[in-house]
Amino acid sequence: MQRSDSTYGITDPISKAPPTQQDxxxxxxxxxxxxxxxxxxxxxxxxxxxxxLGKLHLIIKDWVRSVCLSKGFSETLxxxxxxxxxxxxxxxxxxxxxxxxxxxxxxxxxxxxxxxFFGSLYELLKQHPDITQLKSVPExxxxxxxxxxxxxxxxxxxxxxxxSTIPEDLDLVDANNxxxxxxxxxLSLNGCRVTDQILRLxxxxxxxxxxxxxxxxxxxxxxxxxxxLGFLGGVSWALMVARICQLWPTAAPATLVSRFFKxxxxxxxxxxxxxxxxxxxxxxLKVWNPKIHPKDRGHLMxxxxxAYPAMNSTYNVSESTLQVMKAEFSRGTKITFExxxxxxxxxxxxxxxxxxxxxxxxxxxxxxxxxxxxGETEEEHRTWEGWVESRLRFLIQFLENTPxxxxxxxxxASFPSNVEVDxxxxxxxxxxxxxxxLNFNKGGVPSTVKTVDLTPAVADFMEVIKEWAHxxxxxxxxxxxLPSKSLPDYVFEGGQRPKIKRGKKRESTGDTSTSxxxxxxxxxxxxxxxxxGVIDATNSEIPRRIPDLNPDPEISADAPTETPLPSxxxxxxxxxETATSSYSAETPSTSTRPIIPTSVTAVMPESDVEIxxxxxxxxxxVVRPGVTKRPVLNLLNKN
Length: 639
Prior knowledge:
Layout (H helix, E strand, L loop, with lengths): L20 H16 L6 H28 L4 H7 L2 E5 H5 L8 E7 L5 H14 L3 E7 L6 E6 L2 E9 L22 H19 L3 H17 L12 H14 L5 H14 L27 H4 L21 H27 L15 H4 L2 E9 L2 H23 L4 E6 L4 E2 L2 E3 L2 E15 L12 E3 L1 H12 L9 E8 L32 H17 L38 H4 L26 E3 L28 E3 L5
Parallel strand pairs: 2-5, 11-13
Antiparallel strand pairs: 1-2, 3-4, 4-5, 6-10, 6-12, 7-10, 8-10, 9-10, 13-14
């Protein structure tokens, strides 16, 4: 659906040129590949989802009525209280594919509180015969209940409005609904409000949906799709795609995908991505503003939601995950350029598959941290895993602050590894993995200490997860170091460990941690940048300096003058034309390249939470000032 508005977002479009025949053909080929990945639901699946949502709505209304009765309400008042289920995320945006989950929000009146939601409703859902894999995470930044309903994965949030009844025609976009709400309810409502705003702010909904399907598939295949672990979730990717659609309102999906990578490869973070001018409101809720909120100044990759109150949807991004995403944007730039070139040579062949090749995470690094999560029962493990996963970002931050350790990048999914005896599960277990990048050459000065002490990071993380109020004696965790050759087979596709072709050693550092493909990518992009000044600036439609995408935002009349909203820098500041176009976490410039020596030790702490400190190789004691003698792990085996 093409809109008639001439301008979207906060700037004029970069180009309104209609798509060429090549653009249309490439878009058709892209859609064919998306359908091969089952990214479009069938009519039968659509009806099934509607039926499940209808059943959930009835469950919620009956639950609210029963809670009202238990609190002394009359039968009439309890029946009139009402409740409503709203959808948001991929399902609401219209990009939910086959087997995709549904994000839902339960809106209840003021006499239903969050304790009821995680108490009586949780128990009600647990008893329902069609609901399985139930897990609650009340301590999450946005508290949620996860479960499967008739085979459909669902997330359920909760918001309590300051009204006695919930009308059937409730409009969540109206900011007045936010009056007198607690912070968690505002956060929960934000998903629905943001989704509706995105659909209003894009020029062509059909083109936006096709492009977003592509970017989401790419992000999942490349291992950069996970809000909780420090990458980006569905809303953030949708906001970034929507901004590209605003800049090229008439472009075909294939063109938008190419522009997506070109723009964000050169984006100068932490300058924010915004779809609409950030505005205040008489309600006085906290709006994202790094000028007055110190916490906002610490955000590394802000992507701002368009609904009041404006929030950063990427607050979990860390230095490590940001470097991985920058590298993936560079890879996407290179591959989409190659796709256009290959199409001209052979227009009948579909060249999009290369863009969606799976991540090489488990062959990319030399050193890994293995986090095992254990529970005595399935329900216990599922609940415990949700809590630990929601706190893994702290482990990443602790590791980033560890001397001689540059980055700790997570794989955005867990692996089940239950212990079975005679076909029966005796221990429920799952695993997360972090890839480590070491740097003994920080600041260009080689370090004489070849020790990576993991003691503070692991001990601090264990203290974080131990503090959970719902932790039971049957819940435990293990953290251990693994060299790449010791990774379990189940992390590889088909359980088969691939044969790795080692690249030539670098004479200056002796570093063999970077794959041949990564080095080739670095060399190709550097050569191209030296020749053109800007990566892939061969298309005359893309100027070497793109016009101002984010001018100073307008401030609404209701905005207080004493707390000015942040000005958004010009495109010369937003787009970093000198940025490296390679895996910067692994292949920085020669003078600052991480050195991975042939012999390193990693100190692991002792703790009353179970930690595996068994050394895979012969270990030696290492003592640092102020640190007692502890077991250590040989971080890199010479063999």
